[in-house]
Amino acid sequence: CNxxxxxKRKKKNENKRVIISNLPFGxxxxxxxxxxxYDSNEIKTTKYTILTFLPxxxxxxxxxxxxxxxxxxxxxxxxPVVNAFQPxxxxxxxxxxxxxxxIKDAWEDFRRYKLDKEINHMGCYIYSREEHAYVEKCWKDxxxxxxxxxxxxxxxxxxxLLLHSSDQNGICHLETANLDGETNLKQRRVVMGFxxxxxxxxxxxxxxxxxxxxxxNDLNKFKGYMEQPxxxxxxxxxxxxxxxxxxxxxxxxxxxxxxxxGHETKAMLNNSGPRYKRSRIERRMNRDIxxxxxxxxxxxxxxxxxxxxxxxxxxxxxxxxxxxENGNFASPVLAGFYMxxxxxxxxxxxxxxxLYVSIELVKLGQVFLIHNDIDLYDEEADLPIQCRALxxxxxxxxxxxxxxxxxxxxxxxxxxxxxxxxDGIEFSHQENAKRLETHKELDLDDEDFAKLQLLTLPPMxxxxxxxFGHSTVRPLRRCQSARARFQGHTRSRSVGxxxxxxxxxxxxxxxxxxxxxxxxxxxxxxxxxxxxxxxSPTHTKTSTSLTDFFLALAICNTVLxxxxxxxxxxxxxxxxxxxxxxxxxxxxxxxxxxxxxxLSQSFSSSQSSSDLGASFSAxxxxxxxxxxxxxxxxxxxxxxxxxxxxxDKGSTDIGSTSLDEVFKSVTNSSLPAAFCYxxxxxxxxxxxxxxxxxxxxxxxxxxxQVTVQLPQxxxxxxxxxxxxxxxxxxxxxxxxxxxxxxxxIVVYTKGADSVIMDLLDDSAKGDISAEKRLKRIKExxxxxxxxxxxxxxxxxxxxxxxxxEDDFQKWANFRREAEAAIDNREELLMETAxxxxxxxxxxxxxxxxxxxxxxxxxxxxxxxxxxIQIWVLTGDxxxxxxxxxxxxxxxxxxxxxxxxxxxxxxxxxxxxxxTLEEVRKNYEFDxxxxxxxxxIPTSCSASEAPSPEFGLVVDGRTxxxxxxxxxxxxxxxLTRLCRSVLCCRSxxxxxxxxxxxxxxxxxxxxxxxxxGANDVSMIQAADVGIGISGQEGMQAVMASDFAISRFKHxxxxxxxxxxxxxxxxxxMVIYFFYKNVCYVNLLFWYQFFCGFxxxxxxxxxxxxxxxxxxxxxxxxxxxxLDKDVSAxxxxxxxxxxxxxxxxxxxxxxxFIITMLDAFYQSLICFFVPYLMxxxxxxxxxxxxxxxxxxxxxxxxxxxxxxxxxxxxxFTGVFKxxxxxxxxxxxxxxxxxxxxxxxxxxSPYWIMERQLTDPIFYLLCLITPAIALLPRFxxxxxxxxxxxxxxxxxxxxxxxxxxxxxxxxxxLRSRKEAPSAVSHRHTENxxxxxxxxxxxxxxxxEEGFCFFNRWAEEESAATDSSVGPxxxxxxxxxxxxxxxxxxxxxxxxxxxxxxxCGSHRRSVSSVTL
Length: 1408
What we know:
Blueprint: H1 2-12, E1 16-19, H2 53-61, H3 65-76, H4 87-120, E2 123-128, E3 133-138, E4 147-151, E5 159-165, E6 171-175, H5 177-180, E7 185-189, E8 209-213, E9 223-227, E10 233-237, E11 241-242, E12 247-249, E13 253-260, H6 266-269, H7 280-312, H8 332-346, H9 354-371, E14 386-387, E15 401-404, E16 411-422, E17 425-427, H10 430-438, H11 446-456, H12 461-465, H13 510-513, H14 519-534, H15 540-555, E18 560-563, H16 584-600, H17 609-616, H18 626-641, H19 649-668, E19 675-678, H20 682-693, E20 697-701, E21 705-709, E22 715-724, E23 732-738, E24 745-751, H21 753-756, H22 768-790, E25 794-803, H23 805-820, H24 825-836, E26 841-852, H25 856-865, E27 869-873, H26 878-887, E28 896-900, H27 905-933, E29 950-955, H28 956-964, H29 968-975, E30 980-984, H30 988-1002, E31 1006-1010, H31 1016-1021, E32 1024-1028, H32 1035-1039, E33 1042-1044, H33 1049-1087, H34 1100-1110, H35 1113-1121, H36 1127-1132, H37 1138-1141, H38 1148-1173, H39 1180-1202, H40 1213-1233, H41 1246-1250, H42 1254-1280, H43 1285-1292, H44 1297-1324, H45 1345-1358, H46 1379-1382, H47 1394-1397, ...
Parallel strand pairs: 15-27, 15-31, 27-30, 28-29, 28-34, 29-30, 31-32, 32-33
Antiparallel strand pairs: 1-8, 2-3, 2-4, 4-13, 5-11, 5-13, 6-7, 6-12, 8-9, 9-10, 14-33, 16-17, 16-26, 18-19, 20-21, 21-22, 22-23, 23-24, 24-25, 25-26
Helix pairs in contact: 2-4, 3-4, 4-9, 7-8, 7-33, 9-33, 9-35, 14-15, 14-19, 15-16, 15-20, 17-18, 23-24, 25-33, 27-29, 27-45, 33-35, 33-38, 33-39, 38-39, 38-42, 39-40, 39-42
GO molecular function, one term: ATP binding
Membrane topology: Multi-pass membrane protein
Pfam families: Cation_ATPase, PhoLip_ATPase_C, PhoLip_ATPase_N
């Protein structure tokens, strides 16, 4: 009956998945289980099976048109009328070529099979009804409807709905490194109704039916409901789904039911599978083979027609014309057709069959050299470069677009606290900056670490550092991670691939944890603590700000606390602490006193705005932030002048002495061990470690409360009332707590400065002095933020708000209603959050540095100089991606950045049109000016961004609109005019769709690079896919064509090896076409003198060996070892890469020119000996032998002209001499031994007689010189007049080392001249502020006038209610608009004063 209900329900929910437990069915009743139709968990990423390998591989190899041609020729040899020479021999070459390619493809697929087998046989625990316990089975045995138990540090085998967690709050923590490369933790919650169980979860009692959506590739969305036996329904979403490939962290045990398995899991659906990649040169070869086949057809047709005409002139049949068995002779037409087939056999080597074998061998040699390049070896990780695809090495030299992931690819995902500003006073943390400059990422010994602390920390901090474990506890090594022990059974196996038990704790390296405090700020914190101790009313306002600032850093987050000894064991109970000299009652009095003082006392600013502005505008400072330090020193001195000085010598000594005594007492009541903090984002971890550096230590956290240790040593436990998480619309997070001492309800908020600044409360309830003070603090903080942004730091503003009980109760009721709502729930929750986060009090701001990988900015600059356009496709939030783009020089401060976020197609289309129109106008406006200066480039490759002044930022929702609304062409037209493009919040599928769109529509060469499983589709969609190895997740590496350990290795891989591989292979391919056409034409010219009979003047074995041995070695050595330019020059002059980008070596024009040259050389090689031996009685082979020798010598000397590494004896002289010597030795032996070969003609003793003939030597001397003279003349002209950049680089390399560097700098300066003038022109328009004060006032004439007009047009078009916009400052856009609120329209505010109203990077950003 139950199964019948399931079937009926399944029909009603055809677009939904219905899942029940597998336990009632067992193995005997499996056929009755409705879950049996769902995929198993076994995965298969191979392309072939044993049965399908041959047909499928042959089909793929026939994508090479030459293979079809060679098979046709081999079959044609067996036609009797063709009278082919030993037809069996012609089958061997094509069989060998296809067999070698098949073996290579089979080996690559076998490696995929081994990885699949390894994954499928990983172990997990599945509940067994027979044994009433969880038993270990392989991943491939997991089925939809099974119950799976997971332990800490175990990789999740399938998509599982979470039904039980060992955490008392029903929370399970995940690490998604295998999916996105991020080691931070994400939270998942048990389905409602299951988290309250006090006993262990019993699968046998589970009788619910699960209805959820069908399998899809959206990693961020999942919804469904669970129907209980009483028909009650419980909903769930993505927060309850454990995704395959993630790792359980910080949770002893979890259990759930499998929803999706195998290829239906979200991770696998985002993997589009491997595709057969063919290089661009191979595709061009297909086109040129078509041309060669056409040429062959024409030559055979000429032979057939000529033969028909020749035989038609005879009145009687000639003696060599043999009749058939009936005595009938073939008609001239039929004889011509037979001759057409015979000519195909004769001239078949026009298509070089040996080319494909040679290409495979050359690519193997190139891969070997790349793999053994010491510069591409990562010593720290002990990882060399991996070349996983052997057939696309030359594509590395033709890349035009690079699509890069951000986290783990460009960055190390390490956030380091650098600077902060509190109450308008900036603290530069110079000690921390010095530490970061000298820091090396090592596992330091205790002694070494103590030495480092002595070198970096100021003297005051040494006594403080001990209690909090910075110098007494050894830093946590990356490989340390405690394995959770689960009661009931012990797992002896290594759970997870790559030994996940040794996973690092996210954001726990010493470079992130060990913040060196700023000496001035530390002194102020200690003075605040001293004033608190003595209950002094002096400076209570500053004390409150300092305390609130660091409390906000410590508690306004979702950071989990664990200890260094057990870094994955969550701390939920504050550790016992010895009582200090300051009692809780005394602290309570302190906070009450501070509260009263903050209400009764107004505190005026200690420095005027003009002084601050003057200190900012220090001219030509090496460090733009240096002015901030002098500014705050002046601030201190001015404070002293007003009678409020605490920094004079006497008071400092007194304060220090008493503080030392206080902190000594705190030392005795120190915490038992250092803490590890595990955060959802690296920013949160960095801020918590910064608070810890100033003795505001986060001790424990639960969903209900959070405990912080103050500098005095007292533990404060705040009750958490609500947590409003971060989202990309609000761009902030807040935590509502009840203060344990004042009993106030306080809202601590942190978020992007662009939104926090607009939420501040500027009024002070009629207190004019306090209002002025707030305004002054806001202005100073904004200036600090602008300088932080210019220095590439990620900025966050910290604010607070105190709520009354009545206001909080009203808001809490509103919030509960929103949480209980079914319709528009997300919008209501957003509204409640925005209602709470208003009228905030600014506490300060922080500047955090996202640690880029070494060499990333230099690599990006070099790649851009090489003409490569770089896009960043990331799932990270928009602000983070933009910050990284500035840090790694993907975007420049002088760039105008357009940000388009919308969910409406019409709005998106109009924004794209407006943006495109204005960008084109600006580009056209620049054109005449650039021509006037005479620096406009003569040619522009397809990959060059025409205008370097614009950047584009779009989010995932906008990408959906673009793809679904048919706006791809407009989007691409805009991106081609932009310097860089950032796609944020994009799904793995969107990443691959973007890559495919650019590759197919623009017909450009693309490269994708990433490190996580979410990058697999993007990597496989590009022409070249590169995986970053060394991370915990290896899916990207397994799907890639090349694997490197660092992004900086991309520079040499592309600029050096890519250039070499392309240049070598392109020259080799075109050389093969040349030599075969040149050689075949000799046979064709001879047909005019033999009645088009299809006979030859060269022995057949000599013809076979010509391609097989005589001319095969030089191209192979040339293709592997030749270097047209040295590696140092290629790295020093990245513009040389454009040679391959634009396919300057191998294209249609060079192919045609080479074919014409081949025809000319064949004419010379044939007719010079013909004229020399004319009217003589020389026999056929005696005439053909000199022609064969001369043509071989000419072809080898032609190769020598193209070769650049003549300095190497092995690759230069040896090639030509070896082939000539081998040819002569073979000919002498063959001609002396072959007495009865090819009757009636015989090659016997021909070479021996030729070597005694002076005419032979004369021909060998004169003919190659005449044949190669035009090519040599053209090469000389190219080197003298209009030399390309490659030729100039080759000439520079002949100079002494010192002069080489000087000439390279001159060449680079010439190439950079256009961009330099462009930047100067941009600065004149007010786009850049790299020199002088960037915050000076600008007149309308200095700005882009079209911004104002554009804003008016768009505002009029989208919202007629918006008033006219001010034209005073047409450059300054203010804020992003929430897509849901304003429909994506462009909004701009132009404040009365630029100094007051500018937000971070508002100088150069325009938000749509």
